[in-house]
Specification:
This protein is of the alpha+beta class and 141 residues long. Helices cover 50% and strands 15% of the residues. The strands form 2 sheets. The chain has a two-stranded antiparallel sheet with strand order 1-2. A two-stranded antiparallel ribbon has the order 3-4. Keywords: Membrane, Transmembrane, Transmembrane helix.
Length: 141
């Protein structure tokens, strides 16, 4: 691991360990709606199902980074039995979601005041420095 980022072979090893942990158990992972509320869903999963889904996500990440693929197909047969929502594949996004970028957030009044305060302090120090230098030269000559 370098720079806090797993290498592709480390991702594969970790995904293999997750798959091995779930092997021989009845994996359950499903995405279900919350009744009449179409705006939200919930996940029903047992530990083996979470491990299998996590392993597939890690494998997709490895393919995105190592093979420069832009789509990773998921094996929904392994965990998606009975799920109301089936995730068939993952597409690599080239941008962040709206509102999640750091530079898309509007600057707060507190942040603006801090900038103005810093600039005024620097201006004061610059004026004081120039005044001090002029005073020293007047005293010498």
């Amino acid at each position: 691991m370098q720079d806090g980022k797993l290498k592709p072979e480390e991702l594969s090893d970790f995904a293999d360990r997750l798959n091995a942990d779930a092997l021989g158990t009845k994996a359950r992972f499903g995405i279900f709606g919350n009744g009449d509320n179409t705006e939200s869903s919930h996940i029903e999963a047992n530990p083996a199902g979470l491990r299998l889904f996590s392993a597939q996500l890690l494998e997709a990440l490895r393919r995105f980074e190592e093979q420069r693929e832009t789509t990773a197909v998921l094996d929904e047969e392994a965990w998606g039995e009975g799920s109301e929502t089936v995730i068939s594949h993952i597409e690599l996004a080239d941008t962040t979601l709206a509102g999640q970028g750091e530079d898309e957030r509007p600057e707060t009044v507190k942040e603006q005041a801090l900038k103005v305060g810093c600039l005024l302090t620097l201006l004061f120090l610059l004026v004081a420095l120039v005044t001090g230098i002029v005073t020293i030269f007047k005293g010498l000559f």
